Inverse folding.
């Protein structure tokens, strides 16, 4: 037994969270465009972020297993156990502890937004799906803010959340969008459940799960119906001179931004536009637009609060134990349709909504 497997065995860790991946909310293809900018400050900030992310991905691949078991006491009841750290513009984690569970808000708005975002994520999974934290057992939620210098990303590193402040040009503070916080923490849920491999279609499903639940967290916190939601991921995150509204749109993939330097949002909405690429781990941030759109279609077809029916179906599919780590879009379409039948009955509105949604995106 190698060292990583020995660690996992000793701590009761199964295949579902033995090998956490490094997941960022901003895709490398977007930062790569920015790194070619004629604006020196923008290009430099994007290039530094790209280089830093690449180094962290490499470190993740060659490190056996970082402590993915809880590093702080898990919540004993149904309340979260949150700790926010200030990295003080360094890259050494976690940084200085600045707010713990139950403490009053501090003067730093970034700290308070991170604290609230962790809480909103915890509440959605608990109240809507009966899940206690991302591991289902009350795992403590840690986050570090003010990471690096002009760092243009946020990420889940397998054990905690990390937020950059952005450069103020391409991106602003990454805690401003609660769906971004929920997106990254959902990578942790996926890590502890289906553990979808981070490349190709399984990787795009991994990204899509984070967009789906990130959007649901925002909708839940705002008490919005599917019709009232904007279905945008990262709204308010783009800098003042960027032509766009968000990182991604689940309602209309491919329309989130169209900028002279960053180019046009490359996400397809259906399999007709599926992108074959060796970049971005096989296009995980691009082709995720297809299952994203399927969820949007199903949720709006059903109407009401999206977490109550469509969200439950997606959660059942992710956590039901039948979704393989190398699942394809077709696998997820089949299993989610079966999950709709199992929970709500054959031939009902939920079953029909799933069939219609997957057919519309070319997977029916």
């Amino acid at each position: 037994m190698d060292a990583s497997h020995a660690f996992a065995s000793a701590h009761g860790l199964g295949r579902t969270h033995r090998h956490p991946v490094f997941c960022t909310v901003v895709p490398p293809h977007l930062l790569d465009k920015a790194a070619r900018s004629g604006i020196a400050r923008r290009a430099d900030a994007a290039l530094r972020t790209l280089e830093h992310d690449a180094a962290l991905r490499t470190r993740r691949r060659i490190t056996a297993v970082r402590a993915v078991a809880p590093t702080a006491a898990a919540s004993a009841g149904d309340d979260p156990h949150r700790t926010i750290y200030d990295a003080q513009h360094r890259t050494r984690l976690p940084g200085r502890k600045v707010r713990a569970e139950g403490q009053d808000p501090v003067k730093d708005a970034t700290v308070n937004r991170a604290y609230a975002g962790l809480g909103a994520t915890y509440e959605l999974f608990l109240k809507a799906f009966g899940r206690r934290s991302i591991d289902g057992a009350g795992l403590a939620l840690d986050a570090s803010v003010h990471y690096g210098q002009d760092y243009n990303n946020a990420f889940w590193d397998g054990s905690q959340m990390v937020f950059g402040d952005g450069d103020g040009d391409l991106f602003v503070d990454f805690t401003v969008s609660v769906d971004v916080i929920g997106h990254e923490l959902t990578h942790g849920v996926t890590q502890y459940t289906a553990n979808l491999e981070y490349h190709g279609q399984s990787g795009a499903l991994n990204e899509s799960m984070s967009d789906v639940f990130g959007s649901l967290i925002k909708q839940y916190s705002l008490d919005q119906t599917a019709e009232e939601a904007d279905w945008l991921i990262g709204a308010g995150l783009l800098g003042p001179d960027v032509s766009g509204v968000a990182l991604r749109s689940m309602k209309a993939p491919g329309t989130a931004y169209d900028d002279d330097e960053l180019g046009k949002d490359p996400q397809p909405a259906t399999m007709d536009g599926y992108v074959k690429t060796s970049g971005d781990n096989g296009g995980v941030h691009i082709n995720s637009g297809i299952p994203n759109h399927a969820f949007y279609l199903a949720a709006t077809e059903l109407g009401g609060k999206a977490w109550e029916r469509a969200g439950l179906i997606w959660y059942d599919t992710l956590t039901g134990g039948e979704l393989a780590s190398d699942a394809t879009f077709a696998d997820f379409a089949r299993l989610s349709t079966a999950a709709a039948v199992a929970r709500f009955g054959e031939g009902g509105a939920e079953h029909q909504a799933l069939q219609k949604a997957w057919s519309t995106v070319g997977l029916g």
Summary: The beta strands are 23-24, 82-86, 96-100, 141-145, 154-156, 161-163, 232-233, 248-249, 258-259, 263-264.
